[in-house]
Amino acid sequence: PRNVTKNAQGVLTVAGVEVTKLAEEFGTPAYVVDEDDFRARCREFRDAFEGWKVYYAAKAFLCGAVVRWVDEEGLYLDVCTGGELAAALRAGFPTERIKLHGNNKSVAELTRAIDVGVGRIVIDSYDEIDRLCKVAADRGVRASVLVRVKVGVEAHTHEYIATAHEDQKFGFSLAGGEAADVIARVLDEPALELKGLHSHIGSQIFDTQAFEVAARRVIGLHAEVRAKHGVTLPELCLGGGFGIAYTTKDDPAPPAQLATELAAIVEHECRAFGVQVPTMSIEPGRAIAGPAVFTLYEVGTVKVVELDAGASRTYVAVDGGMSDNIRPALYDADYSCTLASRRSDAPPVLSRVVGKHCEAGDIVVKDEFLPGDVRAGDLLAVPATGAYCRSMASNYNHVPRPPVVAVRDGAARLIVRRETEEDLLRLDVW
Ligand code: LLP
């Protein structure tokens, strides 16, 4: 996060609060969010993408406080399940600014969305058209929908988080006319009001070129709809997926640059297809939440493992792991980390930070140079854990999920409490 520095004693401070104090008060592991940083990232997207609707993708990191921040900073909200919708509703997010995603929404989810009046529902299957028509007709309302299009782009990212190539579950294929067919059907349904098209090509993407190809194809379809049906769809969403820096190897574009590039692409493609630029939207999750959070761990033990040829590797075990950050195990994701509780002049050694789970793949940071005297009781901070860490956390090995602590202006407050042993056992039927 931005408001993080190390003081003369080598103690990491966030918004003026020392992490040693945070560890004392809230325990470890803990997710620590720099509230001003999170809010500033919301505003940067909002201001850079002037005239566009910016939906925060709740799946990246969601809790009541975050929903309120997103609301206060004037963003829209993208949810993709009934559970995410429930969190948004509980926090009082204005429903007309909510968009509901999901490739397999249930009747219950659609019904709730209609009943509370969410602003947009993104259609992702033929079954959903039938379901939604029935729900909307039963209620006597017209549902405002977007159609999710699979544009056939191979985004350069991990296979599991790429979503626009043909062989995956999301959206209707452009190739072979599936998307065009769905659009014709939706236009024909009195219970549905087609607001526009939607494309999301994947996540942790750095090259704007992938967005360019996606924009060209989806705007091409938009133009086709006008030519064929005489309907000018008012909106177009390009999805999320903007990459962030996890280690120094990554070099993301700031929102202002992204906005300039995407606006130029959209204008160019609209001109080429002879259509007006629709109301545009995006759905960043990671780029807002990711960099604003770090995870604070305490070291429990250090083990030096001899490798071949006289080499060795230092394993630094912390009090969390794959239950609070599954990303290294799931996507081979890289993180960095720093000694956060003291200064050390010991020469750095190549270390692997691991968790406390019963798997060898329970890695937090694969390779990091840490001072050679790191020992039990030290605090380590792993930056950029705001997106898809807490939201994908599990209770593997019956480990309680860590709390989320928000720090702002020299004060820390709990926004999600730590799970207790009681929480872990409460679903068992004894
Ligand atoms: N819009 C849609 C339709 C999405 O499916 C997603 C992410 C987003 C927006 C937000 O993407 P973002 O800006 O956060 O990249 N668990 C994976 C990421 C999965 C992303 C799923 N969809 C990870 O940890 O990398």
Structure in words:
- It is built from twelve helices and 21 strands.
- With 430 residues, it is α/β, with parallel strands linked by helices.
- It folds into two domains: 164 residues, Lyase, Ornithine Decarboxylase, Chain A, domain 1 (Beta Barrel), CATH 2.40.37.10; 255 residues, Alpha-Beta Barrel (TIM Barrel).
- The strands form three sheets. Strands 4, 14, 15, 16, 17, 18, 19, 20 and 21 form a nine-stranded mixed β-sheet that branches.
- Strand 20 and strand 21 form a beta hairpin.
- The longest helix is centred in the middle third of the chain and has 22 residues.
- It starts with a strand and ends in a 5-residue tail after the last helix.
- The protein binds ligand LLP.
- Ligand LLP binds next to helix 10 and helix 11.
Radius of gyration (Å): 23 Å
Number of strands: 21
Mean pLDDT: 96
CATH architecture of the largest domain, by name, is Alpha-Beta Barrel
